[in-house]
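Milestone M4 deliverable, item 7.
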Amino acid sequence: MPERLPALPEQPAAPRRKRRWRTLLALALILGGAAAGGFYWWRQHQALLPAGIASGNGRIEAEEIDIDTKFAGRVLERYVDEGDMVTAGQVVAKMDTRDLEATLKRTEAQVLQARKTLEEANANVVQQQTQVTLAQQEIERTTALVARGYATNELLDQRRQSLNGAVALLNAANARVGEAERALDAATHDVELYKVNIADNTLVSPTLGRIQYRIANVGEVLPVGGKVFTLLDISDVYMDVYLPTAQAGRARVGSEARIILDAWPKFIVPAHVSFVATQAQFTPKAVETEDERDKLMFRVKVRVDPELLLAHAAEVRTGLPGRAYVRIDPKVAWPAALQSTPSK
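Output delivered:
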């Protein structure tokens, strides 16, 4: 039998806890140093700008729109894919509508049947009107004969009863015309409804944009509201930046702004402020002193001008990092580095 190696003595718990605390302390010092360095860089960068212009880092973003189904069904055709540019109203996919089309044919046949029923009802009305006219004429003749003694009052009563019966049949015929008209209207509305439902199964892009995600493939059966694509709305491109209290308090919706992307440092993108948060976005602890209030940051949304987006729709890329500059004082002129016209 081979000899067993002696078991190693267990390490005391106290040294392990000391090493763990040293690791946590070193990590905290690294993070604290990075935060302090970032804050120092931000302060130095702000010092290079005029007092009436604030800036912050961010990324280009766009609103996401889900293109989904109105009804449960199977994806029949797909006309675009991820990364494709689409325009407003462009067909991007089509659902299988064979069941709806079959139902539409049935309702169209019901419309034809309702029209024939209405035509028959109208013809019956004409026929009953003739009977009423004939009964009235017979009453007039019988009345004249009774006055001369050539007919009896009993015959005159019979003629009057015939007239009452003809009038009742005419009223019933008119009622059947109303029923036929309502049946025709209901069938016609059903046809319109199924045509709308079939049209809604053709998925179109609601706006100018780029297909960000393809979620469903051809042949997949989706529930009501099943997503097929996610579209980036190129007409609404923006950058969220965070400004401290003193600067965010002076920013106004509509204030001029500029965006410079890291990928295109010489391309000045004109923009404007479209949103200023009314509450601080992050508060590390309870605010009790003025120094702590100065550390509060508010989200400011800087939106790219729509006319520029239309001219450069194919070049828009979301997720690109950059820097936004906001003119919080309208009397302050833009620096020379931020005055160049957009060109590429």
